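RETRY 2/3 - previous attempt timed out on the joint model. Re-submitting the same 708-residue input unchanged.
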Amino acid sequence: MSRILVADDEVAIRKVVRDALEKAGHEVDTAVDGAEAARLFEDGAFDLVVTDLNMPNLDGLELVRRIRRSSSVPILVLTVRQEEREKVRLLDAGADDYVMKPFGVAELVARARALLRRAEARSGAQPVTRWGDVELDPESRTVKRGGAPVHLTPTEFSLLLALASRPGGVWTHRQLLGAVWGSSAGISNDTLRVHMGSLRRKLEADPNRPRFIRTEPWVGYRFSPEPD
Amino acid sequence: MPAFALRRWIGYPGAAILVGATLAVLKLFRGLGESSVALILLLSVFLSAWLWESGPGVAAALLGTLGFNFFFLPPVYTFAVEDPRNVAALVVFLVSGLLTGRLSATSRERLRLVEAERTDLANLTRLSEAFLADTTRESLLGVAADRLRSALQADNVTILIGDDKGELVAAASTSDAPVRQDLADLAFRQGSSAAFPSSGEGIDLYLPIPIGVQRAGVLVAKGLRTSERMGEGCAVLLGLALERERFVRLARAAEETRASDQMKSTLLAALAHDLKTPIAAAKGAVENWAGEAGSSEGSRIAVEEMRRLTRRIDELMDVVRFDSGVAHSRRERVTCSEIVEASLARFGDSMSAHSLYVDVPRTDLRVDVDPSQLTEALGHGLENAARYSPAGTEIRVSAEGRDGTAFLRVGDRGDGIPPGDRERVFDRFVRLPSSTPVSGTGLGLSIARSLVEMNGGTLRLTDAPGGGTLFEIALPLAAG
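RETRY 2/3 succeeded.
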C-alpha cells in the first residue's frame, strides 16, 4: 500500500481520483490547492503526488519545482488538451508523467502504478530486458529480436538502454539528449528523430504504428514494454 | 523690432557725438602726444562700431580721421598737412579705424545672430516639450497655434490640416485673418514653401508640415520676425508631434483590441474549464462505478456516451473560439509523421472496426504549423472516414511531399460524396444522408477546414482512388 497525495481545486475531480486510487489499494490524502499540497507534503511521507496543473495559490508547475528541491518522489500531473508546451515545462521541471483531462480512470491508475513500481525499483535500477520478441542484454550490449541478433549503432544502443531503464516512462527530447549525449547543446531534435526512426525500424513490427517506442507528440518519447 | 530699428536710427548721430566728445576731451589735455591721441580716437571708433555696427562704425572712422587731422595735426584747424610723415600717419589711422570698426561690427553682428539662434533653439526646445506633453490631437492643435505664434514672434499663426479626402481644413488659428488658399494648397500638394514681406512688419510664411515624405498640412505664419529656418523647424516639429499623436492613438486602439481579445480568451478558458471539469468528474465517476459494477451493457454505454459528450463539447468550444476571433495558431516546426502518429493515438479508437493502413515516408516532411490544431484537423478526417464507411473496410492514412507541398490524406472505402456536395459538407451542421446511421453534429469538417486554413493550408474532399472519399490536407513544406 502506498501513500498518495492528490492536489486539485475541483472537489469532484478530487473525489474521483481518490476513489479510483483507493480502490486500487492506496491510501490517499487530498489538498485543495498547491499551497496546501506543499504544506501536507512537508509533513507526511508520500510515495506519489498527483497534482492538477491549474490551481489557485501555487499552480502545478510551481508545486513540482518546490517538491523537487527536497524530494525525488514521483509526480503525476493532470493536464488538459492543448498544453503541449506546459507538458514539456512540467517534465523538464521534474514531473515524471502526465495524464490528460478528461482522463480515463484506468489510465490514471496504470500510470500511478508504473510510477510507484519504478520508484520502488529505483535503488537497484535494472532496465527491462524483455518485451515483445525483443531481448536486451546490457552486459554484452547485444539485442536480439525473435532470437536473431540485431545490429545497433552505439548511439541507438544508448538510446534503447535509456528508454529501457524507465519502463512506461515519458522522456522529453531534452532529457533524452542529455541522457545519451551528455547535454542537449548542439544536437537537434531532428538528429534524435533519425536515430529513433532507425531504432524503430530495427525493433518494431510496424514502424509506422510502433507498439513499444512511441512518440509523445511534441513532448518526446515513451517506452511501453507492455502495450495497452 | 522697434528696439533694433531705433538702435540703427540713432547709430549715425550716436557715432558722431561719441567721436566729437572724444575729440573735445582730448583737446582739453594739451600735453598728449599725437600717437596717444590717435589710439584713444581709435578706441572711440571701436566703441561706435560695437554699439551701432557697420554703418555708424565706418562713419566714426571717417569722422575720427578728419577730426584728428583738423584738430591735432599741424597746421591745426586746417585740413592741410604740413609734414609728409603725418600723411602716412593719417592714412594708417584711417585704415586702422575702418578695420577696427569692421571687425568690431562683425563680431557684434555674429554675437547677435548666435544670440538669436540660441533663443530660437530654446523656443524650439520649449515647443517640443510642450508638444510631447500633449497626447490628444485636440489638445495638441488647440494650443499649438498660440505656442507657435510666440515662438515665431509672429502676428498670427494658422494651422491647416489635410482631412480624409485630402482637403485642407483650418484646424487652429490665433486670429480670424484670412490665409491665401492658393499658397496653402501649393505648400500642401507640392511641398513648396512661400515667403514674402508682410503687409505689416516681418514676413508671411506658408510652410508644408512634413510627415515623412508626406505632408500633414500647412503652417501659415503672418508677420514672422524670426528666421525662416525657425519657421521650418517649427513646421517639422509640428509634423512630428502630429505623427506621434497618431501613433499614440493607434497604439491605444491596438491595446484596447488586445485587452478585449485577452478578456474573451480568459472568459472562454473559464467557460471551457466550467464545461469540462464536470464532464471529467462525471466520466471518472462513471468509470469508477463501471469498474465496481463490472462490465455491463449499461456501464459500457455510459462510458461511451461520456466520451462522446466530451468530444462534442470540444467541438463546440472550437467553434466558439473561431467565431470570437481569439483562436490563434502557435506554430512550430514539426514533421508530418508526428502529426499522423498523434492523430492516430488520439482518434485511432474510433477506427477499431476498420482495417487501418498507414503510409508515411521515411524522409521527414517538415511543416510550420500548430501541432495541436493539425492533429485535431486530421483527427476529424479519421473520424469522418470511420463514420461514413462500412465496418471492416480499409482506411488509408498517408503523407506525401510534392512540389513544396505536404499532403496529409485519409482515404476510405465508403459511398463517397457526390461532387456537387463536396463543398457544402464544409458548412456547419450539414450532414449528408448516409446508408449507415451516424452520430455527430456536422461541425467536424467545418472545424477541420478552419484549423487547416489558420495554419496556411487547404482542405478538400475528392474521390479516393478505387472509390470512397479522400480527405486531403495540403500544407506548405517548411523551407530549409
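Chain A touches chain B at residues 10, 12-13, 15-17, 19-20, 23, 54, 80-82, 84-85, 101-106, 108, 190, 193, 197, 206, 208-209, 214-215, 217-218 (CB under 8 Å). Closing ticket.
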